[in-house]
Write a structure and sequence with these properties.
The structure is a single chain. By secondary structure, the chain is of the alpha/beta class. The protein has two domains: 191 residues, NAD(P)-binding Rossmann-like Domain (Rossmann fold, 3-Layer(aba) Sandwich); 185 residues, 3-Layer(aba) Sandwich (Rossmann fold). The chain is built from 13 helices and twelve strands. α12 links the parallel β9 and β10.
Protein backbone atom coordinates (compact mmCIF):
# COMPACT_ATOMS: atom_id res chain seq x y z
CA UNK A 1 0.00 0.00 0.00
CA UNK A 2 1.32 3.45 -1.00
CA UNK A 3 2.64 5.42 1.98
CA UNK A 4 3.87 9.02 1.83
CA UNK A 5 6.58 8.24 4.42
CA UNK A 6 8.02 5.35 2.43
CA UNK A 7 11.23 5.75 0.45
CA UNK A 8 12.85 3.29 -1.94
CA UNK A 9 16.50 3.71 -2.88
CA UNK A 10 17.61 1.92 -6.05
CA UNK A 11 21.26 0.98 -5.70
CA UNK A 12 20.54 1.17 -2.00
CA UNK A 13 23.23 -1.28 -0.87
CA UNK A 14 26.03 0.82 -2.35
CA UNK A 15 28.30 3.59 -1.09
CA UNK A 16 25.84 6.38 -1.97
CA UNK A 17 22.49 4.70 -1.38
CA UNK A 18 23.04 2.93 1.95
CA UNK A 19 24.28 5.96 3.96
CA UNK A 20 21.51 8.13 2.48
CA UNK A 21 18.96 5.50 3.47
CA UNK A 22 20.30 5.41 7.03
CA UNK A 23 20.10 9.17 7.43
CA UNK A 24 16.56 9.31 6.00
CA UNK A 25 15.40 6.41 8.21
CA UNK A 26 16.75 8.27 11.25
CA UNK A 27 14.35 11.13 10.37
CA UNK A 28 11.30 8.87 10.61
CA UNK A 29 11.00 7.60 7.03
CA UNK A 30 10.53 3.93 6.21
CA UNK A 31 13.36 3.06 3.85
CA UNK A 32 13.73 0.12 1.49
CA UNK A 33 17.19 -0.41 -0.02
CA UNK A 34 16.81 -2.13 -3.39
CA UNK A 35 19.91 -3.64 -4.95
CA UNK A 36 21.23 -6.57 -7.01
CA UNK A 37 24.14 -7.27 -4.66
CA UNK A 38 22.97 -10.27 -2.60
CA UNK A 39 26.02 -10.18 -0.34
CA UNK A 40 25.51 -6.52 0.61
CA UNK A 41 21.77 -7.05 1.08
CA UNK A 42 22.37 -9.91 3.51
CA UNK A 43 25.00 -7.92 5.37
CA UNK A 44 22.76 -4.86 5.78
CA UNK A 45 19.79 -6.92 6.97
CA UNK A 46 22.08 -8.52 9.55
CA UNK A 47 23.03 -5.08 10.85
CA UNK A 48 26.53 -5.09 9.35
CA UNK A 49 27.68 -2.37 6.98
CA UNK A 50 29.32 -3.99 3.92
CA UNK A 51 31.89 -1.19 3.70
CA UNK A 52 33.41 1.51 5.87
CA UNK A 53 31.12 4.45 6.59
CA UNK A 54 31.75 6.72 9.56
CA UNK A 55 28.91 6.67 12.10
CA UNK A 56 26.99 3.88 10.37
CA UNK A 57 27.38 0.83 12.62
CA UNK A 58 25.25 1.89 15.58
CA UNK A 59 22.76 3.73 13.39
CA UNK A 60 22.14 0.71 11.16
CA UNK A 61 21.50 -1.59 14.12
CA UNK A 62 19.21 1.00 15.69
CA UNK A 63 17.16 1.48 12.52
CA UNK A 64 16.83 -2.29 12.00
CA UNK A 65 15.55 -2.74 15.55
CA UNK A 66 13.02 0.04 14.91
CA UNK A 67 12.10 -1.64 11.59
CA UNK A 68 12.76 1.60 9.70
CA UNK A 69 15.09 0.10 7.07
CA UNK A 70 15.68 -3.15 5.21
CA UNK A 71 17.31 -4.30 1.97
CA UNK A 72 15.88 -6.42 -0.84
CA UNK A 73 16.25 -7.35 -4.51
CA UNK A 74 12.54 -6.88 -5.14
CA UNK A 75 12.00 -3.88 -7.44
CA UNK A 76 8.21 -4.05 -7.02
CA UNK A 77 8.67 -2.60 -3.53
CA UNK A 78 8.70 0.82 -5.19
CA UNK A 79 4.90 0.60 -5.52
CA UNK A 80 4.60 1.19 -1.77
CA UNK A 81 6.77 4.30 -1.71
CA UNK A 82 6.19 7.95 -2.36
CA UNK A 83 9.85 8.69 -3.12
CA UNK A 84 12.05 6.62 -5.43
CA UNK A 85 15.71 7.65 -5.28
CA UNK A 86 18.08 6.38 -7.99
CA UNK A 87 21.69 5.77 -6.93
CA UNK A 88 22.82 3.48 -9.75
CA UNK A 89 26.40 3.68 -10.99
CA UNK A 90 27.17 5.44 -14.27
CA UNK A 91 30.49 4.02 -15.51
CA UNK A 92 32.61 4.97 -18.50
CA UNK A 93 33.73 2.45 -21.12
CA UNK A 94 37.24 1.52 -22.28
CA UNK A 95 37.18 4.49 -24.68
CA UNK A 96 36.44 6.79 -21.70
CA UNK A 97 32.94 7.58 -22.96
CA UNK A 98 29.83 7.37 -20.75
CA UNK A 99 28.37 3.86 -20.68
CA UNK A 100 24.80 4.82 -19.89
CA UNK A 101 22.91 2.05 -21.67
CA UNK A 102 22.17 0.06 -18.51
CA UNK A 103 21.30 3.19 -16.56
CA UNK A 104 18.79 4.43 -19.13
CA UNK A 105 17.36 0.97 -19.82
CA UNK A 106 16.69 0.46 -16.11
CA UNK A 107 13.87 3.00 -16.32
CA UNK A 108 11.99 0.77 -18.76
CA UNK A 109 11.96 -1.86 -16.00
CA UNK A 110 10.96 0.69 -13.38
CA UNK A 111 8.25 2.29 -15.53
CA UNK A 112 5.65 -0.46 -15.05
CA UNK A 113 5.62 0.12 -11.28
CA UNK A 114 5.17 3.89 -11.45
CA UNK A 115 2.12 6.03 -10.89
CA UNK A 116 1.41 9.76 -11.13
CA UNK A 117 2.03 10.32 -7.40
CA UNK A 118 5.59 9.02 -7.28
CA UNK A 119 8.48 11.46 -6.83
CA UNK A 120 11.47 10.07 -8.71
CA UNK A 121 14.86 11.49 -7.71
CA UNK A 122 18.01 10.77 -9.71
CA UNK A 123 21.06 11.07 -7.46
CA UNK A 124 23.67 9.45 -9.70
CA UNK A 125 26.29 11.46 -11.61
CA UNK A 126 24.91 11.61 -15.13
CA UNK A 127 25.91 12.84 -18.56
CA UNK A 128 24.18 16.20 -19.16
CA UNK A 129 20.81 15.60 -20.81
CA UNK A 130 20.31 12.09 -19.40
CA UNK A 131 17.62 13.26 -16.97
CA UNK A 132 15.61 14.51 -19.94
CA UNK A 133 16.02 11.13 -21.68
CA UNK A 134 14.74 9.40 -18.55
CA UNK A 135 11.77 11.75 -18.45
CA UNK A 136 10.81 10.78 -22.00
CA UNK A 137 10.77 7.11 -20.92
CA UNK A 138 8.58 7.53 -17.83
CA UNK A 139 6.45 10.60 -18.57
CA UNK A 140 3.34 8.61 -19.56
CA UNK A 141 3.35 7.00 -16.10
CA UNK A 142 4.90 9.70 -13.91
CA UNK A 143 6.04 13.24 -14.65
CA UNK A 144 7.54 14.05 -11.24
CA UNK A 145 11.23 13.66 -12.03
CA UNK A 146 13.93 15.43 -10.04
CA UNK A 147 17.72 15.51 -10.26
CA UNK A 148 19.47 16.01 -6.91
CA UNK A 149 23.17 15.07 -7.16
CA UNK A 150 25.06 13.66 -4.20
CA UNK A 151 27.99 15.79 -3.02
CA UNK A 152 29.50 13.88 -0.12
CA UNK A 153 33.00 12.52 0.45
CA UNK A 154 32.88 8.75 0.38
CA UNK A 155 32.87 7.23 3.83
CA UNK A 156 31.62 10.40 5.49
CA UNK A 157 28.08 10.74 4.11
CA UNK A 158 26.36 10.42 7.46
CA UNK A 159 28.60 13.11 8.93
CA UNK A 160 28.49 15.43 5.91
CA UNK A 161 24.86 15.30 4.75
CA UNK A 162 23.57 17.61 7.53
CA UNK A 163 26.39 20.09 6.85
CA UNK A 164 26.14 20.44 3.07
CA UNK A 165 23.80 22.35 0.80
CA UNK A 166 21.73 20.19 -1.56
CA UNK A 167 21.18 21.01 -5.23
CA UNK A 168 17.57 20.32 -6.25
CA UNK A 169 16.17 20.45 -9.78
CA UNK A 170 13.09 18.99 -11.43
CA UNK A 171 10.99 18.64 -14.56
CA UNK A 172 8.02 20.30 -12.87
CA UNK A 173 7.26 22.41 -9.82
CA UNK A 174 5.88 19.50 -7.81
CA UNK A 175 9.01 17.41 -8.35
CA UNK A 176 11.25 20.28 -7.22
CA UNK A 177 9.20 21.24 -4.18
CA UNK A 178 8.64 17.66 -2.99
CA UNK A 179 12.31 16.79 -3.42
CA UNK A 180 13.32 20.00 -1.65
CA UNK A 181 10.97 19.17 1.21
CA UNK A 182 12.53 15.71 1.57
CA UNK A 183 16.14 16.89 1.52
CA UNK A 184 15.35 19.77 3.85
CA UNK A 185 14.97 17.08 6.53
CA UNK A 186 18.62 16.09 6.20
CA UNK A 187 20.46 18.99 4.52
CA UNK A 188 21.69 22.37 5.72
CA UNK A 189 20.35 24.32 2.75
CA UNK A 190 18.36 23.70 -0.44
CA UNK A 191 19.48 25.37 -3.68
CA UNK A 192 17.06 25.16 -6.61
CA UNK A 193 18.42 25.07 -10.17
CA UNK A 194 17.50 23.87 -13.64
CA UNK A 195 18.19 20.21 -14.45
CA UNK A 196 21.01 20.86 -16.92
CA UNK A 197 22.57 23.28 -14.44
CA UNK A 198 22.45 20.62 -11.71
CA UNK A 199 23.98 17.99 -13.99
CA UNK A 200 26.83 20.32 -14.89
CA UNK A 201 27.37 21.46 -11.28
CA UNK A 202 28.04 17.84 -10.32
CA UNK A 203 30.46 17.18 -13.18
CA UNK A 204 32.19 20.56 -12.87
CA UNK A 205 32.76 19.96 -9.14
CA UNK A 206 34.51 16.61 -9.65
CA UNK A 207 36.46 17.78 -12.71
CA UNK A 208 37.64 20.87 -10.78
CA UNK A 209 38.99 18.69 -7.97
CA UNK A 210 40.59 16.25 -10.40
CA UNK A 211 42.36 19.05 -12.28
CA UNK A 212 43.59 20.60 -9.03
CA UNK A 213 45.14 17.29 -7.96
CA UNK A 214 46.85 17.02 -11.34
CA UNK A 215 48.52 20.42 -10.82
CA UNK A 216 50.27 19.24 -7.67
CA UNK A 217 51.11 15.90 -9.27
CA UNK A 218 52.73 17.70 -12.20
CA UNK A 219 54.68 19.92 -9.79
CA UNK A 220 55.74 16.78 -7.89
CA UNK A 221 57.08 15.21 -11.11
CA UNK A 222 58.99 18.36 -12.01
CA UNK A 223 60.60 18.46 -8.57
CA UNK A 224 61.37 14.75 -8.57
CA UNK A 225 63.21 15.07 -11.87
CA UNK A 226 65.31 17.88 -10.37
CA UNK A 227 65.91 16.01 -7.07
CA UNK A 228 64.04 18.75 -5.21
CA UNK A 229 61.57 18.13 -2.38
CA UNK A 230 58.11 19.19 -3.61
CA UNK A 231 56.63 18.95 -0.12
CA UNK A 232 59.15 21.49 1.18
CA UNK A 233 58.33 23.82 -1.72
CA UNK A 234 54.59 23.42 -1.15
CA UNK A 235 55.01 24.21 2.53
CA UNK A 236 56.93 27.40 1.78
CA UNK A 237 54.44 28.38 -0.95
CA UNK A 238 51.62 28.23 1.58
CA UNK A 239 53.48 29.82 4.49
CA UNK A 240 51.64 33.06 5.32
CA UNK A 241 50.53 33.41 1.69
CA UNK A 242 46.78 32.94 1.30
CA UNK A 243 46.82 32.81 -2.49
CA UNK A 244 48.53 29.42 -2.33
CA UNK A 245 46.63 28.13 0.68
CA UNK A 246 44.48 25.68 -1.28
CA UNK A 247 47.17 23.93 -3.31
CA UNK A 248 46.57 20.21 -2.66
CA UNK A 249 49.13 17.60 -1.72
CA UNK A 250 50.53 15.43 -4.47
CA UNK A 251 49.25 11.86 -4.51
CA UNK A 252 47.16 9.28 -6.32
CA UNK A 253 43.94 10.94 -7.49
CA UNK A 254 41.52 8.15 -8.30
CA UNK A 255 38.30 6.46 -7.27
CA UNK A 256 34.89 5.92 -8.83
CA UNK A 257 34.00 9.59 -9.40
CA UNK A 258 36.77 12.04 -10.27
CA UNK A 259 38.15 10.49 -13.47
CA UNK A 260 34.75 9.19 -14.57
CA UNK A 261 32.97 12.52 -14.22
CA UNK A 262 35.84 14.41 -15.85
CA UNK A 263 35.55 12.09 -18.86
CA UNK A 264 31.74 12.41 -18.90
CA UNK A 265 32.19 16.17 -19.10
CA UNK A 266 34.75 15.75 -21.89
CA UNK A 267 32.40 13.53 -23.86
CA UNK A 268 29.63 16.09 -23.45
CA UNK A 269 32.01 18.76 -24.82
CA UNK A 270 32.90 16.62 -27.87
CA UNK A 271 36.27 15.65 -26.33
CA UNK A 272 37.51 19.23 -26.51
CA UNK A 273 37.99 19.43 -22.73
CA UNK A 274 41.77 19.70 -22.98
CA UNK A 275 42.26 20.51 -19.29
CA UNK A 276 40.44 17.34 -18.32
CA UNK A 277 42.43 15.14 -20.68
CA UNK A 278 45.72 16.64 -19.53
CA UNK A 279 44.72 16.07 -15.89
CA UNK A 280 43.90 12.45 -16.70
CA UNK A 281 47.25 11.96 -18.42
CA UNK A 282 49.10 13.35 -15.39
CA UNK A 283 47.13 11.59 -12.67
CA UNK A 284 46.85 8.22 -14.40
CA UNK A 285 50.51 8.44 -15.43
CA UNK A 286 51.86 8.90 -11.90
CA UNK A 287 52.35 5.17 -11.13
CA UNK A 288 54.32 4.71 -14.37
CA UNK A 289 56.36 7.83 -13.59
CA UNK A 290 57.33 6.46 -10.16
CA UNK A 291 58.41 3.11 -11.60
CA UNK A 292 60.41 4.75 -14.37
CA UNK A 293 62.14 7.06 -11.87
CA UNK A 294 63.00 4.18 -9.53
CA UNK A 295 64.20 2.03 -12.41
CA UNK A 296 66.73 4.71 -13.40
CA UNK A 297 68.19 4.80 -9.90
CA UNK A 298 68.06 1.14 -8.82
CA UNK A 299 68.13 -2.36 -10.24
CA UNK A 300 64.51 -3.15 -9.41
CA UNK A 301 64.87 -6.82 -10.32
CA UNK A 302 67.08 -7.15 -7.24
CA UNK A 303 64.76 -5.16 -4.96
CA UNK A 304 61.59 -5.93 -3.06
CA UNK A 305 59.03 -3.13 -3.31
CA UNK A 306 56.41 -2.80 -0.59
CA UNK A 307 53.11 -1.05 -1.36
CA UNK A 308 51.53 0.57 1.68
CA UNK A 309 47.82 1.07 1.06
CA UNK A 310 45.66 -0.41 -1.69
CA UNK A 311 42.37 1.49 -1.48
CA UNK A 312 41.74 4.48 -3.72
CA UNK A 313 41.84 6.95 -0.82
CA UNK A 314 42.86 7.05 2.82
CA UNK A 315 40.93 5.29 5.56
CA UNK A 316 38.47 3.48 3.31
CA UNK A 317 38.26 -0.11 2.06
CA UNK A 318 37.16 0.77 -1.48
CA UNK A 319 39.47 -0.40 -4.29
CA UNK A 320 37.44 0.94 -7.22
CA UNK A 321 39.76 2.53 -9.81
CA UNK A 322 42.58 2.56 -7.26
CA UNK A 323 45.92 3.79 -8.62
CA UNK A 324 47.61 1.79 -5.87
CA UNK A 325 46.31 -1.37 -7.52
CA UNK A 326 47.40 -0.12 -10.95
CA UNK A 327 50.87 0.53 -9.55
CA UNK A 328 50.99 -2.98 -8.07
CA UNK A 329 49.92 -4.55 -11.38
CA UNK A 330 52.52 -2.57 -13.33
CA UNK A 331 55.28 -3.71 -10.98
CA UNK A 332 54.19 -7.35 -11.22
CA UNK A 333 54.03 -7.09 -15.02
CA UNK A 334 57.73 -6.15 -14.90
CA UNK A 335 58.46 -9.25 -12.80
CA UNK A 336 59.45 -7.10 -9.80
CA UNK A 337 59.01 -8.67 -6.38
CA UNK A 338 56.29 -6.89 -4.40
CA UNK A 339 54.71 -6.96 -0.97
CA UNK A 340 51.38 -5.34 -0.12
CA UNK A 341 49.52 -4.14 2.94
CA UNK A 342 46.29 -2.32 3.69
CA UNK A 343 44.56 -1.38 6.93
CA UNK A 344 40.99 -1.80 5.68
CA UNK A 345 40.87 -3.90 2.52
CA UNK A 346 41.34 -7.56 3.38
CA UNK A 347 43.24 -9.78 0.95
CA UNK A 348 45.07 -13.11 1.34
CA UNK A 349 48.21 -11.56 -0.14
CA UNK A 350 48.36 -8.72 2.42
CA UNK A 351 50.93 -8.68 5.20
CA UNK A 352 51.20 -6.50 8.29
CA UNK A 353 52.53 -2.99 7.65
CA UNK A 354 55.48 -3.38 10.03
CA UNK A 355 56.49 -6.67 8.43
CA UNK A 356 56.26 -5.02 5.00
CA UNK A 357 58.58 -2.23 6.13
CA UNK A 358 61.04 -4.78 7.52
CA UNK A 359 61.12 -6.99 4.40
CA UNK A 360 61.02 -4.29 1.69
CA UNK A 361 64.00 -2.51 0.17
CA UNK A 362 61.76 0.18 -1.34
CA UNK A 363 58.58 1.32 0.41
CA UNK A 364 55.94 3.24 -1.54
CA UNK A 365 53.22 5.03 0.44
CA UNK A 366 50.44 4.60 -2.11
CA UNK A 367 47.49 5.35 0.18
CA UNK A 368 48.08 7.57 3.25
CA UNK A 369 46.09 5.68 5.87
CA UNK A 370 46.38 7.33 9.28
CA UNK A 371 47.86 4.12 10.69
CA UNK A 372 51.01 4.72 8.61
CA UNK A 373 51.72 8.15 10.03
CA UNK A 374 53.95 6.96 12.86
CA UNK A 375 55.63 4.04 11.14
CA UNK A 376 59.33 3.81 11.88
CA UNK A 377 61.26 3.57 8.64
CA UNK A 378 65.03 3.46 8.94
CA UNK A 379 67.30 5.60 6.80
CA UNK A 380 68.70 2.58 4.97
CA UNK A 381 65.28 1.99 3.41
CA UNK A 382 64.23 3.74 0.19
CA UNK A 383 61.01 5.62 0.94
CA UNK A 384 58.76 6.92 -1.83
CA UNK A 385 56.14 9.07 -0.16
CA UNK A 386 54.19 11.02 -2.79
CA UNK A 387 51.98 12.51 -0.10
CA UNK A 388 54.75 13.86 2.15
CA UNK A 389 53.13 11.83 4.88
CA UNK A 390 55.85 9.90 6.71
CA UNK A 391 59.10 11.13 8.23
CA UNK A 392 62.07 8.74 8.12
CA UNK A 393 63.44 8.04 11.62
Amino acid sequence: MFNKNNICIIGGAGHVGAPLGLVLSSKGYNVVLIDKDKKNIKSLNNGIMPFLEEGSTKLLKKMIIKKKIYATQNLSEVKKSRYIIICIGTPINSQLNPNLKNFVNFFYSLKKYLNKNHIIIIRSSVYPGVSNKVFEIIKNRCRNLSYCPERIVQGKAIVELPKLSQIVSGKNTRAKLESGKLFKKISKKIIYTGIMEAELIKLFSNAYRYINFSISNQFYMICKNQNIDFHKIRKIMRDDYKRNANIPMAGFAAGPCLLKDTMQLSSFYNHKFSLGHTAMSINEGLPKFLIKKLNKEYNLRKKTIGILGLSFKSDTDDLRDSLSIKLLKQLKARKIKTLQSDEYYKDKHNIDKKLLVKKSDIIIVATPHKAYKNLKISKNKILVDIWGFIEKK
